[in-house]
Here is the input.
Amino acid sequence: MLALPIVATIALAAFLVFGISDSIRNLGGAQRDNSGWFYAQMEVDFLKLERALDRAEAGDAATLKTLRQRFDVFYSRVRIAERRHGPDWHTPDIDRIRQMLNALAPLVDGDDATLADGLPSFAGQLAAIAPLPRLIAQDAIAQTATSAASERERIVHLVEMLAAAITLVTAGMMLLTVCLARQTRTLRAAIDDARDKQLRLETTLRASLDAIMVVDDHGIIRDYNGSAAKIFGYGHDEAVGRDFIDLMIPPHLREEQRAIVARFRRTNQTRIADEGRREYEMMDRDGRVFPAEISISLARTEAGPLFVSYIRDITEKRQKEQEMLKARDAAVEAYREKSRFFAVMSHEMRTPMNGVMAALQLLRNSRLDEQQRRYLQAALTSGDILLDHINDVLAIERSEIEDQDRPREACDLSELTFHIHHMMQPLAAASDIEFDLNQQGLDDRLVDIDARALRQVLVNLLSNAIKFAPGRQITLRAGYVTADGQDHARFEVIDTGDGISEANIARIFDDFVSLDSRYERRTGGTGLGLGIARRLVRNMGGEIGCESTPGQGARFHFQIPARTIPRDQAEQSDGPAAPLAETRPLDLLVVDDNAINRDLLGAMLLGMGHRVAYAEGGPQAIESAAAARFDAILMDISMPGMNGMQATRAIRSAGGPNRTTPIIPVTAHALAGEREEFTKAGMTGFIRKPIDMTGLDDTLRQIVGPRTSNTPAPLPEVRKGEDDLIDPDQWSQLTDLLSRDALADRIARITTQVETDLHLLMTSETTDDMRAKAHEMAGMCGMFGALRLHGLLSSVEEACKTGHAAWARQLLDHLPTTWQETRDAWQAELAD
Here is the structure.
């Protein structure tokens, strides 16, 4: 910074010296300039012209020639003067002289007689301009003197500036000298400090427990500490200068390492340096391959890039980790054995309890006095409570067992919440509850989530809301939010019931807690439902909470991480699709106004072995649906005249052979709100354009059901006059065996039991749990003549046994409605 102004000052001094030199040359030229002589000579030539004129007027013919010569000389002087100073200096005087000379030129160029006759005129014109040559000469001499004085003044000014510049340069040089002396002392101190640091660093490297190795971009070892010598077995002199890949990398990893080194030299970019610690395999002098923990840093020096590697042999650490893993596995296995034992014992406890309860119920029909009836009623009530406790404890045990390895899957939360809303709607209607679904915060993305646990939590919260807010309103709200830079799914279950006091909000998620107001014993249960929900939410990485004001309802809310999965990745992660050859041909109707799309979809379906009929629009689809029965209808949404939803409503309301046939929307894009409209119109599922054959087949399998030889019985259609809800023969036997009051009491108890078991069945997370619960409920309902409900539960059990869990879960969707109708049928029979 100090040198910069000094250099600028020196440049200024050089410029001044050049200016002074140029001015001196100009001044010397002014002293020798002939401008004064030239204009004085022009005056002399004018005087000579006058003298020649005087001689010519004396009458000598020879003087005319001299007059002409003097005229030409003076004329030339005037022309030179005109070119010498330009038009801005004495222009009027020069012009007058030149005009006079131009006027006399014809006379001078004429013959002697003409010139002699014109001499008086000649003399008169010369007399008119006689003062001008003297004036011009005087002004030229004055101007020359003024220019010379100006040059001298400029030289003096430049010399003064040069002196000042030299003074500044001298001062700057002195200051620069002082600064350089200080910098020299500072540099010498820095060199001494760097030498000390180098010594300390070398000492640290020698004393480091980690092996430290410096490698250049060719893979050559440049430095090597004592710990590295202990780990690898090579001395410092043996290792330095050799290729670390050949020396320390196992043979099966050498090509990979050479590719990494070559890529760095080619691109000057590295993916291994400054990325933290990583584990790798290395080899010592004896050929032993051992696990190593490596951290690499890149130093870009003037001599080239250097990789500084910190290496630690973690063989002993790995051994300890293996021992810890074995101990952990042993502990986990012991815990699982305990859990399995607990589950078996609980199941074994519940089985004789069912016998005890049945015996107690039969005892009610015998002759008992009042005190005995009170004892019997106490025993029945205690038995019901004990069974509820056993069921809830089993649910807790199951959630803790599955906490360590819960399945996750790509899930569309719009479809999941639609499914739950559809499933819980009949239960809400039975309690005269207005059940709303709010999906404004959702879209059609797929997220990686534990769908089964989420379904169980939502069903649990909604079941509680239905129990504790009869005749009120419930809302299930779902949406996506961003927290801490991560996407989360947020859910809320809002009711307008009696609410919860602030003092009790903190207690409701504890196990075996039942409140005296909203969560009072009149609703039944053990107080474990919300505890299970909290466990499941925490397992999914979230936290559940409640906000409530007494008399104004309650709002349960939770949010869980929801990582978005691209749809193509989700499809790949599903694994290979089941072979298409396993399916039996289906009768399908393809509805699309676009002939290309219609033919393409038909070709896909024909390639899968199905039978396909076509409709060009909504009206033709209605006609085809009225004329023949189809296994499924694939309906385009955007069609002119009548869109897909309008055509679906028409098919559903027509009462023809396809009134209950699955109608699948086929469209390029649909928002969550639009999918809700599809569902309200009577559509099922969703197929996205462009259509993928694997996804198309999966959708047909999920909606129409598995179509292999082991396919479970299809879902019975619930229609009036078909498949009686109650078996009349079975009901007749019950009425003969039991009194009406006893039968009514039995129906009340089985109703309570079915509602409890139905919740457990709907939230079953494993196929085995679903099968066992369906088997238990089917036997119990069959004893009381619930014909249609028994058949549906048997179909669920059969689907589980044959490995068609997806079909079984579709059958579960129809259980709430069938159960509601069965319960109403029982009440109607008892009222007759």
Notes: The radius of gyration is 55 Å. Residues 131-207 form the longest helix (77 residues).
